[in-house]
Amino acid sequence: MPALKPTDYTGRIAWIGRVADRTASLVAEPLSEVAVSYAGIAGEEHAGLTRPSCSRVVAQYPKGTEIRNVRQFSVLSVEELAAIAAKMGVERIDPAWVGASLVVEGIPDFTHLPPSSRLQGPDGVALVVDMENRPCHLPAKVIDAHLPGVGGRFKAAAQGRRGVTAWIEREGVLRLGEMLRLHVPDQRGWRP
């Protein structure tokens, strides 16, 4: 019996980006397509098979411990970016300002996809959803550079709408306009 089941939900790739050096700037460079390897997007700040652990997993590992990189991608949805902008009282939030790797359109409640879901492209390329990407304060400075005085509203507005982190399970090419089919784990929700 398969552990993952394809759904009828698909998301159109609406935006692709790469953050080359996060210490220099969180702003992502827009791309029309990108070949992805098991390490993610070549030249991307979050690329690599492993990474040093951060504050998100401090309950499991001391900060800086070498761990598997399940944060190769920051994936958001068009719909949730629009909701964040509305909550902030602005017309739009550019995905580049929040360091997005990928933005998809058409999958409802995107930030709350079950961990281990797959987003699979036409050539077989597959991203594995790790978990919800919690909002942080880092985009505030970038947003303020474009919309002065607004950046501080991002973290609260993005709560429950910041998308997911993901990693590459199968190499391939991601292209603007292509569709990604959602596959979800074939299991009931955990009941502690």
Automatic annotation (TrEMBL):
One of its GO terms (molecular function) is catalytic activity. Signal peptide: none annotated. Transmembrane segments: none annotated. It comes from the Bacteria. SUPFAM superfamilies: PK beta-barrel domain-like. InterPro entries: MoCF_Sase_C, MOSC_domain, Pyrv_Knase-like_insert_dom_sf. Residues 28-183 form the MOSC domain. Pfam families: MOSC. This is MOSC domain-containing protein. It comes from Roseovarius tolerans.
